[in-house]
Amino acid sequence: GAVVSQHPSWVICKSGTSVKIECRSLDFQATTMFWYRQFPKQSLMLMATSNEGSKATYEQGVEKDKFLINHASLTLSTLTVTSAHPEDSSFYICSAPRQGVTGELFFGEGSRLTVL
Amino acid sequence: DAKTTQPPSMDCAEGRAANLPCNHSTISGNEYVYWYRQIHSQGPQYIIHGLKNNETNEMASLIITEDRKSSTLILPHATLRDTAVYYCIVTNSGTYKYIFGTGTRLKVLA
Questions:
Q1: In angstroms, what separates the C-alpha of B15 from chain A's closest C-alpha?
Q2: pLDDT of residue B41
Q3: What are the beta bridge partners of residue A50?
Q4: Distance CA B99, CA A36 (A)
Q5: Is B28 helix (H, G, I), strand (E, B) or coil?
Q6: Inter-chain CB proximity A103 and B97 less than 8 Å
Q7: pLDDT for the residue B1
Q8: Which residues in chain A touch residue B34, judged by CB atoms under 8 angstroms apart?
Q9: What angle do CA A65, A24, A72 make, to 5 degrees?
Q10: B20-73, pLDDT tens digit by residue?
């Protein structure tokens, strides 16, 4: 079964509103989680590294004020897309490593955001 | 930038072996090779990984060349459900920071 779960699976919102996506590790604790974005027919692009209890680390070119990341507990990271615009429409995927499983990342099911 | 290059697409007949190549000529000594696949509109799924020895599990085999500059993922008996984009990723096992390349779109044909 899934060990990393995202919610919601899909969301439609109006331009200018904010949308929150949750990423949970289901049976393990994750001090680090990763957020990716994927546009149609393209590969996954790493956006940021979410760190429990501290600030997220953003990849070059990703606006930290636009994509707010909060990792308030060892099993939950949230990505908030603020003031969403149609160009933010994408597939957002989170992942987390599970301790003891060398190097392997577990990915969530993904969240499809459509901004009208 | 991704440290790997893969052919953009491949076809394979159902029941035959699918051999997916990956070049990673700049791999360093402490970096592993990981393979994931992504079925349409889902999160990537782990397949297999290795450091320098060949590896096999219930899903696939991984063949790594002796100089570690390339590898091949083998799906021994491809089924229609194996149609997906396959990603080869090179990373240090301690960082978990995966940089995805373009992957190979495998289409299994009936």
A1: 27
A2: 85
A3: A33
A4: 10
A5: coil
A6: no
A7: 66
A8: 103-104
A9: 50
A10: 999 999 998 889 999 999 998 899 999 999 999 899 999 999 999 999 999 999
Q: Quick one: which of A91, A45, A106, A41 has its CA closest to B101?
A: A45
Contact between B108 and A48 (Cβ < 8 Å): no
> What's the pLDDT at B24?
95
Question: What burial class does residue A25 get, using C-beta atoms within 10 Å of its C-beta: 0-12 exposed, 13-18 middle, 19+ buried?
Answer: buried
Shortest Cα distance from B80 to chain A (angstroms)? 20
Query: Considering only CA atoms, which of A59, A52, A55 is closest in space to residue A68?
Result: A55
Cα-trace Rg, chain B: 13
Contacts of A112 (CB under 8 A, 6+ apart): A9, A10, A11, A90, A91, A92, B41
Tokens of residue B87, six digits: 């990603």
Q: Could you give the 3-state DSSP secondary structure of residue B33?
A: strand
CA distances from B84 to A76, B11, B91, B104, B108 (A): 29, 11, 22, 8, 9
Q: Do B87 and A43 touch (CB under 8 A)?
A: yes
Can you count the helices (H) and strands (E) in chain A? 0, 11
Q: Has residue A1 got a pLDDT over 80?
A: no
Place of tokens 């957020």: A35
